[in-house]
Amino acid sequence: MPGKTPDKEPVDNAGYRGGNKMKGKAGKKGEDEKMTVVVPPSKKKDVEGDVAMDVDEKVEEENVGEKTVADIKGNFALLDRAVALFDARFTLRALRSVSSIRKRLTPDILAQAISETYTSTSPGAEIAAGLLKVIGKEGVPLGGGKAGIEMEIDSEPSSKSPQKNGSKKEQKEIAPEIDVFFGILTQVLLHDSKQWQQGLDFSRFLIDKIQALNRRTLDSLSAKVYFYYELFAEQLAPLPPSSQSSIVAIRPVLLAALRTAVLRKDTDTQASVIVLLLRNYLLTSHISQADLLVSHTQFPENAANNQVARYLYYLGKVRAIQLLYTEAHNHLTAATRKAPSSACAVGFSQTATKLLLVVELLMGDIPDRATFRQPTMEAALHPYFLLVKAVRVGDLGEFERIVAQHGDAFRRDGTYTLILRLRQNVIKTGIRMMSLSYSRISLRDICIRLHLGSEESAEYIVAKAIRDGVIEASLDREKGYMKSKEVGDVYATREPGETFHDRIRACLGLHDESVKAMRFPMNQHRLELKNAQEAREREREMAKEIQEGDLDEDDLGGEFEGM
């Protein structure tokens, strides 16, 4: 009918109009019969989701692998530049990147990098095949990937582009520094996978190759090779301090390397091998041999800061075992100051600080409480904090209880034997506290307070403390008591001046070492003198030609006035 209003659009259950425009045959039976069907998610979607996640993970792994390979190959330019300019700083930059590459390094990634770097016809093909065999990827063909394709394209003969043939020759030539860099990455991979024997054999092969090459640009790389050579030997059974350990067998190799490094003036290898030999001797408790090594060798002054810190730590440990606590304290203090402040060197700082605290206690000093409040030191130094509290009070019973409770931690840190020497210091500290508290005290009370066996032991200990200058007192054997002397003003003595002098000397020594550590480009001043001399010669020639009439101002282009 013309006056009839049109029907409204049907509304579906979700509240949207036009929801029932598309109807099937079942809609003809009646508009009142409407159903809402909830379809559960099909398993096919889940499978597709899992497949998508797997694909994403694979893509992410491939991206990580490609980035790692690119990072490895990015160091080749630094190594080539180090060879061209004869500057070890570029080699050190390449070695610093090993720590970041190490977290992502796998046999597949290393094999891919080797395959893309070498070809089957390159001079280093035998070395590459040996590296692939060591990491268990001998089936990977050389010359694969993008690099292999580019080299095949360059190898096409073309008379129109002679420069292209020259570029092919440059790509084929691989520096020995790149071979050794791949060897270091192989050492890292074998060490992380705990293949100790295979790593030791491969390190020995790599050392022979470096010695045969005899290139000064390999000095920094060879130092790292010797470092892993020592680490592999330490992990092989029987473990140190057994005399049958592998570290005893590698000592002739390290000593020969030290002799060669000194003759070749190889500073990096010399510093690294000296540190490794000291570590080797200390692991087997050969203190006299370590002392002979220090006395017959001279540690290079311009060595890397990390090697200097390690050398000072081991030297301080040797001096502490030899009862030379003052020298040990100086060396360990310098080692803690030279330790890197980065998070990767926290372990070294903790180890050096633990030994320094024990040496300070053996010297009769009480460490500063702020040392134990550092965030990176608080948990590691907790047993030593309890030990310092017992020594400071002079409580012998508490000291023995702490040593028994935390003996395993002290043995693991290598300070247990030194801590056992603190028993006499605890007794001396207790006597000093009593001498400050009492003007007169009987030997019997001293014996009871210090848990000593007899009054005679107390008498001997008090007499030794008086002789060593620990306390200012006198001993009356007939009446059996100790009488303390009046304590004078410490500022009336020479002690404050000596302490101030020691601090000034330490600051001046730190300044001198900082100046020595500054590095500048080699022969840069000669290059500047050469350029200045050439400029003066050009000026003389141009002035002479102007005088003779061969040149005028138009020929010079107005540049002579600026000169």
From TrEMBL:
Residues 1-48, 146-170, 533-563 are annotated as: Disordered. One of its GO terms (biological process) is regulation of protein catabolic process. It comes from Triangularia verruculosa. InterPro entries: CSN3 (IPR050756), PCI_dom (IPR000717), PSMD3_C (IPR013586), TPR_PSMD3_N (IPR057985), WH_DNA-bd_sf (IPR036390). Residues 548-563 have a biased composition (Acidic residues). Keywords: Proteasome. The keyword Cytoplasm does not apply. This is Proteasome regulatory subunit C-terminal-domain-containing protein. Residues 309-489 form the PCI domain. Belongs to the proteasome subunit S3 family. GO terms for cellular component: proteasome regulatory particle, lid subcomplex. SUPFAM superfamilies: Winged helix' DNA-binding domain (SSF46785). One of its GO terms (molecular function) is enzyme regulator activity. Residues 156-165 have a biased composition (Polar residues). It comes from the Eukaryota. Residues 1-11, 533-547 have a biased composition (Basic and acidic residues). The keyword Metal-binding does not apply. PROSITE patterns: PCI.
